Amino acid sequence: MSRSDPALHRIAALVGNPNSGKSALFNALTGARQKIANYAGVTVERKAGRLALPGGGSIELLDLPGSYSLDAASPDEEVTRKVVHGEFAGEAIPEVLIVVLDAANLEQHLVFAQEVLELGHPTVVALNMVDLAERDGLTLDPAALSEALGVPVIPTVAVRRKGITELAAAIAEAKSHADEALHSRWRLTQPERRLSAKHMARGAILSKSTRHTVENGIDRTLLNPWVGPVILFAILFVIFQAVFAWATPFADALEGVVGSFTGFVTDTVPPGLVRDFLTEGVLAGVGSVVVFLPQIVILFFFILLMEASGYMARAAFLMDRLMAGVGLSGKSFIPLLSSFACAIPGIMATRSISDPKDRLTTILIAPLMTCSARLPVYAVIIAAFIPPDSVAPGVGLQGLVLFALYVAGIVGAMVVALVLRGTVTKGAASGFIMELPRYQLPRIKDLAIGLWQRAWVFLRRAGTIIFVATIALWVLLSFPKAEPGESQMDSSIAGHVATGLAVVLEPIGFNRQISLALIPAMAAREVAVSALATTYAVDTDDEDLAAQAVTERIAADWSLPTALAFLAWFVFAPQCLSTIAVTRRETNGWKWPAFMVGYLFVLAYVFAGITYWSAVALGL
Ligand SMILES: Nc1nc2c(ncn2[C@@H]2O[C@H](COP(=O)(O)OP(=O)(O)OP(=O)(O)O)[C@@H](O)[C@H]2O)c(=O)[nH]1
Ligand SMILES: [Mg+2]
């Protein structure tokens, strides 16, 4: 299709990275004269408007979706590529391209700008958001940039209509050259574009404030390919140490409170069903979960701190390389990171991943990230079996084991991703460019609100889903009542179920208490802890023994290989129904949730088994 085909409209198009301000410029240039339709065959919006040119005449202006590259990755980018190449039927090649740059992120935005310029169309560059660049302490030199790019560069502030007239004039000027022959430029490779973007950005920046220089210096260290990951690893290590070291006094205090409640109920309520319900069901069960509140709060304190300070985006940037190694992009990092809180928001966050196979892979591995519901389970076993020793000054063994469990989940996820990308979700990895926010001192108030919200979510779970699941288990454990001389556990309904399950679970070292705890834990993982507490409380007639914390009962009752196998199980097992439900919703069917549950159970069983038998063989 020829550019001078008179049957077609003469058009100009706004292109640029996402969030550079294309739509804002589009609105400023066209005012209310807009038409919104869809591109043929795709759901991407075609936003067009009429731009009156200074000196008479007008041209149709297109607002294209943001893209990072003309090698289309997402449906949005595909539209941009087709439009600038004139591949859409009934759509002319744009006579003028307006490349929109974010002046505050110049280096990054210049990469795509060069790719557009290589097409050789008449082009104008809008250096947008100069107000934000100034706020960041950057003074830019549009003339130098224009020299380097070989096209006019117009500084603009779209939201304040600054530079709009100048931009329209430059578009009119470029349009008058539109009938000259195309002359494509030398094509660069992506790394070459990056390098020259760096030089051009440097040349266009006249001065920087000290703040900008300091931040760049910090980034040079934190984002250094060798030093950066070491620092990230060290930070995570400190976090997991703190989860144990700082929480202990608070957890002990909470345990004391639960203990005195139990004492109070035992003293005041006459023996019988009501007392058993309160002590064995409510206090032993729900109380055993609530004592983990300090650890949850400490973990989220650090996560919120990393988010608010701007470090989290840097961590994602560092992870991008690692992710590329297993066939995923850095885009998967944020969903996977959210999964450390809970897989449900994590899986929902995968909607931002454009490549469907990337997205599916990310959904399938999200449950392997250690969600906060697993923390109580890990913590209770670690407290029971791992002595609170120091392996080095300031390095506690318990924190180290917890750290190892988190790492095991991550490594597991990466290996699974690698396997999936080579088999069920085969395909090439897509590229990823991310904007790094500025560093900020976190505000105490925001942190406090964030922590309060997390703590409240946890307590609400304890009061609802965990409470209900624990009480249901208590009922199943308490009836029918045992004959004198029989154990309550053996005669109860739950006991019979456990005996049935033991056939499958005994080979991997699980005892009957564990078999029983795993079923209600499908509702929420923390229930495993409350279920164990209730099971042990029901299973004894000895008041003193019943009042003991679940940690002590487990320490006395389980072998170390069993405890380790239980931990290994929880690293992999798909232990919560809500995750399965959200996977069904996000993948539109039962196929992928079924696949996910299947592979996770197999991994959990195999790894728990391997752990158990290795530990037994080592004589632990
Ligand atoms: N301060 C400032 N903000 C701007 C400027 N131009 C745009 N913005 C804001 O930047 C944000 C992104 O602008 P959009 O116009 O939506 O960006 P876009 O390039 O169309 O983004 P996509 O359509 O996602 O590719 C909006 O919140 C705008 O209000 C500017 O010159 N200065
Ligand atoms: Mg837009």
Automatic annotation (TrEMBL):
GO MF, any single term: GTP binding
Gene3D superfamilies: P-loop containing nucleotide triphosphate hydrolases
Assigned GO CC terms: plasma membrane
Residue intervals passing through the bilayer: 226-247, 282-304, 362-386, 398-420, 458-479, 558-582, 594-615
SUPFAM superfamilies membership: P-loop containing nucleoside triphosphate hydrolases (SSF52540)
FeoB-type G domain segment(s): 9-177
Keywords, in A-Z order: Membrane, Transmembrane, Transmembrane helix
PANTHER family on file: FE(2+) TRANSPORTER FEOB (PTHR43185:SF1), FERROUS IRON TRANSPORT PROTEIN B (PTHR43185)
Stated name of the protein: Ferrous iron transport protein B
Source organism of this protein record: Qipengyuania marisflavi
